[in-house]
Request: fold
Amino acid sequence: MADLKRFLVRRAVTFIPTIIGVTLITFIIAFVIPANPARAWAGGIKADPHVVATIVKEYHLNDPWYVQYYFFMKGILTNSIVDPLFNYKVMSYMLARFPITFQLTLFALFFLIVLGIPLGIISALKKDTVIDAFVRVWALTGVSVPIFWLGYIFIYVFFYMLGWITVAGVPYPKVHITGIPIIDALLSGDWTTFAENIKRFILPGFTLGFAGIGIIARLVRNSFLEAINSDYIYFAKMRGLRNRRVFMHALRNALVPVVTVVGLQFGGLLGGAPITETVFGIPGMGRAMVQAIFNMDFPVLIAGTLLAALIFVITNLVVDILYAIIDPRVRF
Amino acid sequence: MAEEVYEKKILDRFSDALIAFLVKIITLFRKDWYRRNRSRVEEWKLMLYALNRSPIGIAGLVLGMSFIIVGIIGPIIAPHSYDFSFIMATGQYKKYFLAPPGTGGALLGTDDLGRDLLSQMLYGARISLVVTALVLPVGIIIGIMLGLIAGYYGGIIDEFIMRVTDMFLAFPGLILALALSAALTDRMALAIANNPYLTGLVSFIFAVKPNDALNMAQTLSIVVALWIVWWPGYARLTRGLTLQAKNNVYVEAARALSMSSVGIMTKHILPNILGSLLVLMTMDVGSVILVEAGLSFLFGAQMKIPDWGAIVQHGSQYLVNGAWWLVMIPGLAILVSVLGWNLFGDALRDILDPRTRRSIEFKVKKVKKTSEEAGEVSK
Reply:
């Protein structure tokens, strides 16, 4: 475990430059490239020069870039910077949208695990059959399908033709415990809100997870096949263990790499899913960032990328640690 | 003694002819090449035989090639221009407002402005193709160069390059590309407007009217944004492969013969890792099409000249009116193009990996060489 500790320290040290770099890139895109953010915020070409001057002073836009960078980062981290266009605190705005994205990711993850892993095991057990081919086609189609198209097909079929689901908006329960609507509804026993949330998130979740399901299934299939053909399984069979025991034995070992991939997918999805959120009208982080880009609302964009990069780096770290715990062979 | 040769199908003869043609061209420039690279040519032939026996690979190749062909000739065979409107031309508003596929003259239907979906999609194919052709080479070259340098030199250079790479990978890619291209569009438009040659070039490669060249600024800024987003993946993969390859004896030998570092990287390491990179490159053709469609979908109405993603975005407003074709048909075109390249890449992985290639080759039935074929094989 001493190795793990040293690894953690090393990772923590490299993690800080990554985060600073990400925010710096966003900052450069936001402030160096476009011509005049202050005028854009004040309303474009016809903006009142007094308003523009005030904005320039308020947001330190005439100072050297490092002063601006410091000002914006400090403002975002201490939640003191106010959005120039909509007059809310930037960090609280992004943090309020995080639970929605988290909920969407939970749904995607649910499908990833509940469909991906069993499909993979079945296709490994029934190797070279129709099911195996189906999983292979799914994996390839999943990474090829334009996610907005898939979303619109689901909307067309389940909303327009069948009317089974509801789109747009997130119903909140009255109680506020974790901030994530569906978990709060579950905890407070508010079943109508719970059902409404499922109705609205089941399709976006499936759409978002669609590509991942195929990838996970293929991965489980390959690592399960590798496990079932290895010496320890041969040995276990030789000892006369029951099939079920042998199966569990192989499964445990086959799922080790799956943890990594699921973890990385989770980290990637938590940063916001701009396309899925746009198609289904879900007010999550991805949608907020897209709108911020179109409004030239740079403080929100910086806060969003900061959050997304932080989440990504932290989940990667957690996945690495988890990997060391479940697979004792891994040494750092 | 009778020698064993592979039983050949029509496709095999075709691929043999292809290789023979290639060899002929190389021989034009380097006379001695074939004699010295005979085994390599034989290996290429075997790879193509393996491809010929992989239905997935052939299907992928056909779909991928048809994307390229449609992209090239699409604007030429399009029945109408991308901005042609049936409503403007005929004045029949009721008939051509969201006309379903098959309505008089509009094979795939029309949108709310009466524009012909088929023509729009054929022009959109050109945009997709040009974006892919502009994005991939630059992204790949930057990524491979940085990856080679990081993997070969190691130490502080490696650490620095990989930290920067990690930084870009930690970024939500779509957001980075969207922000970059949104920020770049105005400058790009300015650059196109100020340079008549650029205006001509842009309108030529995208097959748009010269007046509309300025409207391609959005698309070109997507290209630049994708350069920035695309290289880190290649840098990371190349670095990993270089780390493995540089411990080989032939690299040691080259170094002992005091070959320059650049020479070792380009002549010894790169050719040996190219196979693994080739699979990623093939699949990335699909990925670029997909990401570009996603970006233009998010940009929506800001894409003045619609490509596939923007057509879907525009059409999605009318989905509740039952106008499924505006969403389904362009989406299907994206899916098929991307799927083709992914299928091809998937087959290529099996073919390029020596372990799995053998298993494909074993499926090739061997027959006794007959006298009439003897001449051809020993050539």
About this structure: The two ends of chain A are 10 Å apart (CA to CA). Residues 191-228 of chain A form the longest helix (38 residues).
